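Record 1 of the preview.
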Amino acid sequence: MNTKRDKVLKRAINVLAHKMRTVKEMSDKLMEKCDDEEIVNDVLFELCQKKLLDDLNYATLYIQDSINLKQKGLFQISMELEEKGVDRNVINRAIEASEVDEFAAVLNYIEVYTRAKTFESYKDVEKLKAHLARRGYTFDVINLAVRELGI
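->
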């Protein structure tokens, strides 16, 4: 028997086969094809029970990838996760669970980014700080890193 719920569940599995999603992203995806919110919520509940949807796991992996591969700061990453529908408490728990060292990441980024640059004026340093802030690093971490590197 091929019920509407089975079709929604099959669509959800197909969506997850391509990439991980947050609960909100999956809800939005499923609501595009199914107008029955009760069925969608039932499928979402089942996926969460089976750990196929897990916002904490999603956020933890997203944080690790964003810091290590995309070299973003925690502020920007947090904002991106909120846009994806991840709850602020889940984001905070994911930051703790990921055990990332934002300070080490910004030090590494500065060293690579400034390899061929010289800082001749205060304005050059401020440009660097602004660049790092746009990448999502907090000013506390930026200032500490700049002092540590003697820039």
